[in-house]
């Protein structure tokens, strides 16, 4: 099917977007440096224009996919006429070229949002922020156009049909996982731009933090959801029930998350106490740098990973140069311009300031640990010391104890006071909760599993140690003369955000602990009529059938599941699919999800005599992993809608109203 | 002053990491080529495309520098590669084809339509030889020296530029 010029229109729109980004990157920064309002005024229209043209380019590519235009190489390699329309639309970002285009579109979207919602910013600040984001955008759009043009045509010999989307990616998880992740990665560019603007303009005060904080929280929330979706997708799609593999690409998304978590805490200190300024700026730069490095690791092929896109050293070099320029210049600027006067705001070693400092130090140690483990194979290889791979044992051995340590301080955080507090007071507020956490945590494995289990106890104690002191704090803080309800209403949304965020961490820890220690897995051979028991559930294969999907053939097993002696039965239907276009077999897992347990059935290989190797799994509390992540994200968002930021908007409105009247008068 | 120097630390750390990443770019973690380089061409015994009764083996490749090209009728890129292969044949390079995962009729039709630069075509319908060669897809091309040792491996489509800048110099080098 010939669809005429749609790809060319998209290509052309992409070029216009690059030119606009260039203007947006140069004029406002030059204007801010030379104090020319006219030049600074380029920032907002260019941000709007860039977003508009990138949206056009993106829609053109999507249209080529939906219309099956296989003369476009990108469509021919990643789509197929049999693919359902929603996978055609999501296949746009299931490949390198399209996903960088999405990355750029999201960056333009964030830029547009900043230009729209940050009108109360001083003019030069806004000009610098948008200018920096424009420059980042120039780098990425040049990358797309020079090395990864998604609109390249296959002419004159166009294929009759496309090679199809990788079946692993034909899934709801893939539809939502990358956009969420990119929203997070790219969202950190906003606080990065704020940090650079602050260094350039020499303005780093609590107003600055108040502007930067909401953007950071939102980006962090998106990244949290993105990582959780990735873990969830791996869990049900890859067929062996794992939810985190310490794969380099997973680590690449975890690194900015860890640094970003440190950043949102350090921003809190900078806003409330005016200290940690240089540190906050450094974290803002590092967080976005780690996002960029993640992009490099995924797309350059320097590391082996299940997720990596096709190897292309030319692309790798381009991103590395981009990374070098962006991060190198930012860190140089940091070294030259970081707040000069180290006016230390004093604080006692027993205070919220100190606890947050410890939080930051631990999070950075964890980040560095994960970073080292991720690039260590590369370091050894580069030094000719051989090829190794660093696996889960390394990461678990370091990540788990460091996280436990972090959580010990985290439990005290919400109880503590800024600047200084009395040790006896802190003890008074926390001893009961601590004791309860210890007792319940030690006893729970005995009640649940029937025997002592130190690992489970440790996980539960830590989780309860986060929740219980916070619950007590909530109880005290909501005390009010007009009754408890009035007291709860009085609590700020920012406080609730913190509570939810910390609760989320505890929920995730409980999920990790229980599923890691109490999951049961059985590999059995099953034919029609065979039964197997796992964790009190009886699985009986009642039928084997063949089915036909839109672009695949499938062998389906019908498995009847019954718990204990109960009469209630339900059917699970795992499938083994063969995707026609690529001739690729795929395992489609059958799941019976629940808040306290998942049942997980996957078909393995076909065996002789009409039977199959089946993998039956019982996964207690696995949902808590992702539920915790959702709570964390909700906490991040809730802190943003706190009235403190809305007040800023109200002030802006009242300020701009007379100004608008004045403008009308002069007009 | 010391504080300024301290502030330079992140930059230094990044530069060290960046240089490793740069080194990493030149290393292929999959090491595809080294597995085959300087090894003997894998042993095989297969019929030719033209004659089902004529069986050839790896000795076919001895005595002269040969380009072994893996192709198939089902592969659109192979069609685009044909002019370059015909050009190479015209320049006196010996070419042997491997008709990979194909049927005899389709393979012959392909050569009738797009020209035949090959001295002989090995017919590999099951892909056994392709498997031993570690072929990911078609087209792929192997340069085999007069002793039957693989000296160069080209993955994917050979462009006119590749002909001039890599293939011909490699052929000359091993002649």
Structure description:
Chain A is of the alpha+beta class. Among the domains of chain A are: 1-165; 520-623. Chain A is 65% helix and 11% strand. Chain A is built from 20 helices and ten strands. In chain A, the strands form two sheets. In chain A, strands 2, 3, 4, 5, 6 and 7 form a six-stranded antiparallel sheet that branches. A four-stranded antiparallel sheet of chain A has the order 1-10-9-8. In chain A, strand 4 (552-563) and strand 5 form a beta hairpin. Chain A starts with 5 loop residues before the first helix and ends with a helix. The model of chain A is unreliable at 650-667 (pLDDT under 50). Chain B is α/β, with parallel strands linked by helices. Chain B has a single domain, classed as Glutaredoxin, CATH 3.40.30.10. Chain B contains five helices and seven strands; from the N terminus they run αβββαβαβαββα. Chain B has helices at residues 2-25, 76-90, 104-114, 128-133, 160-174; strands spanning 45-47, 55-57, 66-71, 94-100, 120-124, 140-144, 150-155. In chain B, the strands form two sheets. A five-stranded mixed sheet of chain B has the order 5-4-3-6-7. Chain B has a two-stranded antiparallel ribbon with strand order 1-2. Chain B is elongated, with a radius of gyration of 21 Å. Chain B starts with a helix and ends with a helix.
């Amino acid at each position: 099917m010939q669809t005429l010029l749609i790809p060319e229109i998209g290509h052309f729109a992409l070029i216009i977007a690059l030119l606009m980004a260039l203007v947006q990157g140069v004029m406002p920064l030059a204007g801010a440096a030379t104090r020319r309002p006219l030049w600074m005024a380029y920032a907002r229209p260019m941000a709007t224009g860039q977003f508009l043209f990138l949206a056009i380019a993106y829609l053109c590519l999507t249209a080529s996919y939906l219309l099956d235009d296989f003369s476009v190489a990108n469509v021919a390699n990643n789509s197929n006429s049999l693919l359902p329309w929603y996978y055609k639309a999501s296949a746009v970002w299931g490949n390198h070229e399209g996903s960088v285009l999405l990355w750029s579109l999201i960056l333009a979207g964030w830029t547009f949002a900043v230009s729209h919602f940050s009108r109360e910013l001083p003019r030069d600040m806004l000009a610098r922020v948008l200018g920096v984001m424009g420059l980042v955008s120039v780098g990425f759009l040049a990358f797309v156009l020079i090395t990864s043009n998604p609109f390249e045509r296959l002419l004159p010999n166009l294929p009759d049909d496309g090679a199809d989307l990788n079946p692993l990616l034909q899934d709801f998880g893939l539809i939502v996982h990358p956009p969420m992740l990119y929203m997070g990665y790219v969202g950190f560019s906003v606080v990065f731009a704020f940090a650079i603007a602050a260094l350039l303009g020499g303005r780093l005060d609590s107003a600055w933090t108040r502007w930067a904080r909401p953007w950071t929280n939102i980006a962090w929330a998106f990244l949290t959801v993105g990582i959780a979706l990735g873990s969830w997708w791996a869990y049900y799609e890859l067929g062996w029930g794992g939810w985190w593999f310490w794969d380099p690409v997973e680590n690449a998304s975890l690194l900015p998350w860890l640094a970003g978590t440190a950043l949102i805490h350090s921003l809190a200190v900078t806003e409330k106490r005016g200290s940690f300024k240089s540190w906050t700026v450094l974290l803002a730069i590092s967080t976005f740098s780690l996002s960029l490095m993640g992009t490099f690791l995924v797309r350059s092929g320097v590391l082996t990973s299940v997720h990596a896109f096709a190897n292309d050293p030319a692309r790798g070099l381009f991103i590395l140069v981009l990374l070098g320029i962006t991060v190198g210049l930012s860190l140089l600027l940091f070294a030259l311009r970081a707040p000069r006067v180290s006016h230390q705001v004093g604080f006692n070693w027993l205070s919220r300031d100190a606890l947050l400092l410890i939080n930051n130090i631990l999070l950075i140690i964890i980040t560095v640990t994960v970073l080292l483990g991720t690039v260590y194979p590369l370091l050894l290889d580069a030094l000719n010391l051989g090829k190794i791979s660093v696996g889960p044992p390394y990461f678990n051995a370091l990540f788990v104890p460091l996280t436990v340590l972090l959580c010990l301080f985290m439990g005290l955080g919400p109880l503590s006071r800024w600047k200084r507090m009395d040790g006896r007071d802190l003890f008074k507020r926390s001893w009961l909760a601590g004791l309860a956490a210890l007792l319940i945590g030690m006893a729970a494995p005995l009640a649940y599993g029937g025997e002592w289990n130190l690992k489970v106890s440790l996980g539960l104690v830590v989780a309860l140690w986060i929740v219980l002191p916070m619950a007590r704090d909530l109880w005290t803080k909501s005390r009010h003369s007009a009754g408890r309800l009035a007291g709860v209403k009085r609590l700020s949304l920012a406080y609730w955000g913190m509570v939810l965020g910390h609760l989320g961490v505890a929920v995730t820890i409980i999920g990790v602990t229980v599923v890691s220690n109490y999951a049961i897995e059985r590999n059995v051979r099953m034919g029609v009529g065979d039964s197997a028991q796992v964790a009190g559930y009886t699985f009986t294969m009642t039928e084997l059938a063949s089915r036909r999907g839109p672009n695949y053939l499938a062998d389906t097993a019908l498995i009847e599941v019954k718990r204990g002696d109960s009469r209630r039965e339900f059917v699970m239907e795992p499938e083994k699919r063969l995707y026609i276009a690529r001739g690729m077999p795929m395992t489609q897992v059958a799941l019976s999800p629940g808040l306290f347990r998942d049942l997980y059935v996957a078909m393995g290989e076909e065996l002789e005599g009409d039977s199959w190797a089946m993998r039956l799994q019982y996964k207690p509390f696995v949902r808590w992993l992702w539920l915790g992540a959702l709570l964390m994200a909700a906490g991040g968002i809730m802190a943003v809608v706190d009235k403190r930021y809305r007040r800023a908007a109200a002030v802006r409105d009242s300020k701009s109203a007379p100004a608008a009247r004045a403008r009308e008068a002069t007009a | 002053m010391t504080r300024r120097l301290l502030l330079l630390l992140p930059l230094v750390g990044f530069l060290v990491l960046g240089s490793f990443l740069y080194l990493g770019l030149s290393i292929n973690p999959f090491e595809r080529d080294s597995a085959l380089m300087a090894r003997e061409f894998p042993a095989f015994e297969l019929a030719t495309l033209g004659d089902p009764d004529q069986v050839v083996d790896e000795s076919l490749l001895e005595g002269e520098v040969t380009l072994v090209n893996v192709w198939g009728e089902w592969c659109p890129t192979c069609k685009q590669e044909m002019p370059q292969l015909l050009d190479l044949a015209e320049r006196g390079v010996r070419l042997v084809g491997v008709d990979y995962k194909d049927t005899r009729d389709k393979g012959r039709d392909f050569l009738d339509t797009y020209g035949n630069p090959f001295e002989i075509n090995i017919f590999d319908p099951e892909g056994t030889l392709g498997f031993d060669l570690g072929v990911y897809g078609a087209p792929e091309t192997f340069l085999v020296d007069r002793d039957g040792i693989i000296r160069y491996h080209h993955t994917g489509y050979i462009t006119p530029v590749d002909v001039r800048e890599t293939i011909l110099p490699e052929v000359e080098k091993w002649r």
